[in-house]
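Good morning C.,

I know you're traveling, so I'll keep this short. The sequence:
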Amino acid sequence: MDSYQQPPVQDGGPGYGYQSQQQMAPVISVKEWMLIMLVMFIPIVNIIMMFVWAFGEGNPSKQNYFKASLIWAAIVLVIYIILFVLFFAAAATTSFS
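The tokens, ready to paste straight into the viewer:
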């Protein structure tokens, strides 16, 4: 269990089965988002940092954002590979006469 969740309250406890006070992840500040965006402009470093922020310890909202970003990047990469293969297969089959 991570530090952002609490175990559910047992029957008979305060809140009748609901958590009386739910601990929430801290809000990511504008300053931190600006720093993240700056890092994402740096080639190669941005890919490495996406994996660090997606699978490392930290804010769950930031982790989910970067996991989703990596999934989209993988989808786009697969589409580019398919288009690349189709383009060069079509170019290779044309006759140069």
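Safe travels,
E.
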